[in-house]
Amino acid sequence: MPHTVEAVLREELRRAGLPGHGGLPRLLALLRASPEVHLTLAEVADLVAEAGLAVTSGELARQLELLADHGLLGRLPTTTTELVFDTVPEPHSHLIYEESEQIVDLHVSADTVLAMVRDALAKRPDSVEILVRFRRGPGAGGEPVVRGVADRSGQDPETGP
Question: Which class for 56: exposed (0-12), middle (13-18), buried (19 or more C-beta within 10 A)?
């Protein structure tokens, strides 16, 4: 890994409260360089093996969880029991297609996401499921307040259309 990239990743790890030495910088570099941004533990294990890094699957799982817990990776809900890590740590939305097991990143505004949800619910009201996840902020505590819940029609059942 080039020295500039290594220095940036070490600093990123330090800012997140993690050690900037050992295997974490190399693992983070592999993940960030991967053309696929949504990876299972098995897929990460393949990347690590191809790179010639010696790490057990248990240690690899621990390192991935550590990176996710400190905001350097995301965790995706999936249609399977297998955990999927997102190498793009910045908040963004996802479309998950159950039939093809495809995950699509949406780097769009909240208004665009809402328009897409309304459109999907209008076109396929019985096959769209909405999950809203409130991410933990660094040092954040408590639960977010949810004022309304939309039903499958996209309308708030308390206030109507």
Answer: exposed
